[in-house]
Amino acid sequence: MPTRTLRVDLKERGYDITIGSGTLAQCPQFLSERCGTSHVVLITDSVVDELYADAVGDLFVDAGLEVELLVIEAGEESKNAETLIDLWQTMLAEGADRGSVVAAVGGGVVGDIAGFVAATFARGVPFFQIPTTLLAQVDSSVGGKVGINLPEAKNIVGAFWQPLGVLIDVDVLSTLPANEFAAGMAEVVKYGVIMDLPFFEYLESHVEAINARDSEALQYVVERCCRLKADVVEEDEREESGRRAILNYGHTFAHAFEAATEYGQLLHGEAVAMGMVCASRLAERIGMIDAKSTERQVKLLEALSLPTQPLEFDSEEIYRLMWHDKKVAEGKLRFVLPNRLGEVILTSDVKSGDVIAVLNGQD
Ligand SMILES: NC(=O)c1ccc[n+]([C@@H]2O[C@H](COP(=O)([O-])OP(=O)(O)OC[C@H]3O[C@@H](n4cnc5c(N)ncnc54)[C@H](O)[C@@H]3O)[C@@H](O)[C@H]2O)c1
Ligand SMILES: [Zn+2]
After folding, report:
1. Which is deepest, 49, 102, 239, 346, by most CB within 10 Å?
2. Mean pLDDT, the chain, integer
3. 206 an active-site residue?
């Protein structure tokens, strides 16, 4: 199957997202077509290094480019200021300068931190995303948000730094652990619910192919999600108009579930799956949608091996934690709720009793 290229049109400059099977082999060409550098800093993590990044480095060498491969420890714990300082200092020691280019080969952790390194080193160098998890391919590599965590808060220090290009090879998803794959699928389902009913229906009718990681199905899924996210980002690049907030469907609940479990028990996508079901039940409770729309989401998420029932949480505690989320606007909790499958609205007009009733599983 041929590769597909999407264009993300932004005010200052746009960029391409190329999606295909076996596209990793095209890395050097993809970069050199889009920037004239001869010095590439590849940033990856310890898992992806062995699987793919080391081989990608060799491709650059074969193409006659000078390449530095910087490897961070795999895992969210690496997305911090210490790793950032390490990366800046290593780049300096390796002779990186304004003429260098950074390429992130890895999941969302690598993409976020490498992007922030690119945004800040020498006051900003060009940057490419080569995402290797499903979550990174459908979500974090598109949109230009980069950054790190502080011990007190996730993603609190960062920048908007758009890549010069995103190169996606769905073949790398074959080595992704099952729970990480399912977690990425939660964000995929999210796009269907918030803005694309035909895509939601496609997912319902292609669960088997998706679970089998069929290349053609994955290419279509990744392409559709990138297009939908790019559409939102084109309208609201810097999260100013509120449009970009629709991407947070299920996330007000999810962030509270993640905080309640101290970010140790649930993958983000698992929390999002539970959070979407809660948001949909909340919409039902206030008369926005029918029960069938929620049940379709539950059925699809379950078929994708995702959890749909919140854990044994203390609902009052979850409600309190929701207020710590940075999406609280003007002293009100803000929810993204479905009007119907394929369309959501943003609302702060929700009673605490309804939220708590949903958390308690009451009808
Ligand atoms: N910038 C954004 O817009 C945005 C959006 C959503 C999430 N994020 C961030 O993304 C991060 C989560 O990303 P993630 O879910 O990709 O996690 P991750 O980067 O930690 O990757 C998950 C695990 O999979 C491994 N891995 C990566 N590719 C693999 C492959 N092809 N085969 C086998 N293993 C592989 C990684 O080494 C890691 O252990 C969070 O830090 C989150 O804040 C950012
Ligand atoms: Zn998310």
Report:
1. 102
2. 95
3. no
